[in-house]
Each structure stands twice: as C-alpha cells, then as structure tokens.
Amino acid sequence: MSAEPSGASYASAGVDIEAGDRAVDLMKEWVKKATRPEVVGGLGGFAGLFDASVLKRYERPLLASATDGVGTKVDIARKMGVYDTIGHDLVGMVVDDLVVCGAEPLFMTDYICVGKVYPERVAAIVKGIAEGCVLAGCALVGGETAEHPGLLGADEFDVAGAGTGVVEADRLLGADRIRTGDAVIAMASSGLHSNGYSLVRHVLFERAGMALDQEVAEFGRTLGEELLEPTKIYSLDCLALTRTTEVHAFSHITGGGLANNLARVVPDGLHATVDRATWTPGPVFDLVGTAGSVERLELEKTLNMGVGMIAVVPQESVDVALTTLADRGVDAWVSGEIVERGDHADAVTLTGDYAA
C-alpha cells in the first residue's frame, strides 16, 4: 500500500524561513552601527521607530522622501561574488537625492529580494547598506528580505531603499534661489556610480567580449573591480557646504547625465553653461566609449562622465565652497556659470572638449 503523499509546505515551495532568521541574526551587528540617538527600539519590530521630537527645533520642518535602487550593477556584484559594496551604492542613490533640496538624511529602510536566502550573502548586503548609512549620517531603521523562488534564480537578487530627511522650509534649496552669475561647481564622481550599467554591460561584455577578471592597465585593477567601485556619498559634504557658505542648489548626477539632471534645477529664463575642458573623465568612461563606438552625446546622456554632484553657489561663495570641499577630501572645481537664457533653447549647454 502506497504512503499518503506529504502535504505542501512553504519549504517545499522554495522558501527557507530558518535561513531568513539566520540572515537577520547575522545582520544585527551591522544595523546597530547605523544608528542615531533618535532611533527607538531595535531590529525585529514590524516598523522602525524614529523620535520625531527632534523636529521641534525647526520652525517649519519639511520632510523629504526618496526611493531608488542600484539597477543592473547588482549583476556585476553577483558575478563577482562581492556583496558588501552594493549597499553603498543604494544609500548614495537615496540620500544624495534627499540632500539636493538641502535635507539632512534621517533614516533609511531597505528591501532585498532574492531567489534563495543565503544568510551570509544577505548579511553582507546589509553590511554595505549599514556602512553607507554611517557615511551619510543617517540611521538604518529596518528593512525586508524577501525570498522569491521561481521568479528569481537561486543566485539572483535585487535591492531597493527608501529614505527620509528634513529641511527647514526657509532653507529649502532649488531653482527659486538660482541667479544670473552663479557659479556651477562640479564634484568628482568615484566612477560610474550606479547608472548606465545596461549600456556598460552591453558594450564591454557583449560587444567587446571583455571579462570581469581581465586586468586593465588604465585601472590598475580588474575590470570587475572597477565596475564595482562604490558610489560616492556626498550628503555630509553637501550639508557641510550649506553650513559654511551660501548655496543656491544642488544637482545629483544620476541617470540622464549631467545636462539633464542639472536642467532640473535651472529656472525658466536662465541657462547653465558647463565647460568640459575643466575636467578629465576617468578611464572607464573612455573605455565604454571606445569599446562600443558610443558617441559622446550618448555617453553624456547615460553616464555621469566623472561628475557625481553639482553645487550652484553665488560667485562670492566660490572660494569658501572649494576650500570646504577640499578640506573634506572632495575633488571639486568651477565648471561653469549661470547666464540669461537668451537664444539658448536648452537649460544646460556643455561646451568645449574634455581635458586630455
């Protein structure tokens, strides 16, 4: 007589609850490092708690919210087997959107979706997120790890995050503050950051046939190591700038490139000119361009080309701004200015050729 077939279970459907619990245990030590005095309680609750009484010191506090992911850069991390840097990218994408309006990042939550929970791997991802939060001055108050067998392969994963910040209403930065004659200050990126990887992967792997473990002399390391270079997190640098001198606007250079992102803070009637000759993009940008015969305009619409953040400041603030950024180890330079729109059809124009 045949045995009764066993009933279905969550485990038989591919979800390992015990592995998820193990991942939470492993990540706790890292989450504890990414905190602020206002955080209430610890990891494991249904919601992260943040003491909002801190907002009493504001006359009119405006809460800022942002959410983002890392895009197809996660595929590079998966293939490299390196999981503790991708969190820096996630934090940078979120908090540096918050700081554009002058907001101080307060806290973040994350969402990690995997095909199969490997506890050490999930913990490594959270470690990177926590380290990024420390660099940004914000707390990691919670998150979610979801196992999606059947939708994702066992080694596949994706990450997303959301952040909240606060800014005093009368210190809100943006297009309304920008004036003719303002200087455009560029801050160097650490590389590709987390945008354009669909183009990068197509060009370097599918068209050029390069390998992640291939040594590239111009990088002084392997291609994979270059592509995994974490996104630079500018939030504390930008906040320091607002405390030391007058700032009219910031622009986070992400998907769409410098011109499209800077245009988002240029008001009607004004125009930003940016001189390419004021900087030299890193070798990774040249490699993508030459390996795929990608035209400069297409590169500039897709990649940051060596500039990760822009500050627009009055001319009298330039010296203090550059000194402040230099003291904080940020490579920055005057790259352009704000002028009357005149005959310019677009809000931003890039002029000249990149410095050799």
Summarize the structure.
This protein is α+β, with helices and mostly antiparallel strands and 356 residues long.
Q: How would you describe this structure in keywords?
A:
356 residues, single chain, six-stranded mixed sheet
Notes on the protein architecture:
- The N and C termini lie far apart (81 Å).
- The radius of gyration is 22 Å and the shape is globular.
- The model has no long low-confidence stretch (mean pLDDT 92).
- The protein contains 11 helices and 14 strands.
- It is an alpha+beta fold.
- A hairpin with a 4-residue loop joins strand 8 (215-216) and strand 9 (221-222).
- Its EC number is 6.3.3.1.
- It catalyses: 2-formamido-N(1)-(5-O-phospho-beta-D-ribosyl)acetamidine + ATP = 5-amino-1-(5-phospho-beta-D-ribosyl)imidazole + ADP + phosphate + H(+).
